[in-house]
Amino acid sequence: MLDWVKEYPGAVTVCDVSGSILYMNDKARTTFGNELIGKNVLDCHPVAARNKLAEMIKTQAANSYTIEKAGVTKLIHQTPWFDGGVYKGFVELSIEIPQHMEHFVRTAASGQE
Q1: Are the beta carbons of 37 and 21 closer than 8 angstroms?
Q2: What beta strand segments (E) does the chain contain?
Q3: What is the pTM of this model?
Q4: Beta strands 11-16; 63-69: pairing state
Q5: DSSP, res 47
Q6: Could you tell me the domains of the chain?
Q7: Which residues neighbour 60 within 8 Å (Cβ) at sequence distance 6 or greater?
Q8: pLDDT digits (tens, 9 = 90+) for 4-24
């Protein structure tokens, strides 16, 4: 992994095509625990989430949503990762976001992308 990922302030978890957790950055380890490396990500979730994750891993479909826990809102983004065009598994990013944040709609006409 790249060095910047280790201390990135959001939780980064990487698993392989079978769901085995390959990597967790410092924030992910603090949030979820050090003992998860080598465990299957499917075993870390309740049945409904496990079924959704299993389907996502199988179909290589991305998933994004927000959650709120103990007054903290997080953006969760789960997406497949590839190496040389070959599907290798999933990455989950968990990033704390403010309760209220600005949202901009950018169009080609505005000159910004």
Answers
A1: yes
A2: 11-16, 21-24, 63-69, 72-83, 86-97
A3: 0.87
A4: unpaired
A5: H
A6: 3-110 (3.30.450.20)
A7: 80, 87
A8: 899 999 999 999 999 999 999
